[in-house]
Every structure is written in structure tokens, then in C-alpha cells.
Sequence to fold (158 residues):
Amino acid sequence: MPGMNGIDITRKIRALFDADTIIIIVSAYDLSEVEDEAKAAGTNMFMPKPLFQSTVCNVLMTLTADQDDYDFMGRRILLAEDNALNREIAVELLEMVHFTVECAENSQEAVDRFEAAAPGYYDAILMDIQMPILDGYKAAEKIRRLSIPMLHKSPFSP
Fold:
């Protein structure tokens, strides 16, 4: 910005407002070079440009969700998603609440991974419906026909 950088603006905002005011620096430059100085000035978060949906979503979730209310530590999800961006976003969101996420790039791969896993290894499978090789509906039918017993109750069932 002409005449003032993000760190200077952060200092001015901190002089005017209390610590509850969230300051996020968005920059196309390598933020690691200024991170320590920006944090000392009062910056809460950083977002690199170009802005990706997953990055913005991650920041918004961090600001709005009390992650302690959603702790799935020790739970494993098999995510079947062929779109790389959607997969990236889903993994980010699931890992924010401490899921262990394993990915399959198509539904047949998800079926194969589930079948090869020990009973109870996966707590849930999240699957796109429109997938290459095998659609999500047919994959779900195959998985249900496997009749693999669960070793523990899913956190998603009543």
C-alpha cells in the first residue's frame, strides 16, 4: 500500500482498538519474512494471495467456531472426492476438528480401501456422488454388501 505497509497499519489499529479486534494481513508476498514483526505489532492471522476458497474457509472457521466443541481426535474418515480443490477444502475442514483423513480419488478406490481395511478402521466415509469409474450410489451399495462389522459405534449414529 502506498506510504504504509500492513505492519504499520496493524500498529495504528492496535493503538485505536482493543485486543479483541481481529487483524488479518492478506499479502501476495512471502509472509514468513515479516511474520514475527507482524505478530509483535498485533496481527492475529495471515492469508496469502491469491485467495483460495479453502484458505478463506479455514480462516472463517477458525474465527467463528469453538473447535473444542468439535474434537474428533482418534477418528478416521475415508474421503472419496475426485476434484482436487474440493478434496483440499474437505481435508482442511476435517483436520481442523482433529479427524484423521485418508483420501480416495474415485469411488472404486474408496470401496477397495474400505474392503482392505481392518473392521472398525474407518469411522465414516464421505463420498461424492458423481465420481469417475463408479458413482457414489453404486459404491455405497458395494460397501454395504461387504457387511464389515464395526468394532465401535460410529460417532454419527444415534
Remarks:
- The CA atoms of residues 11 and 40 lie 9 Å apart.
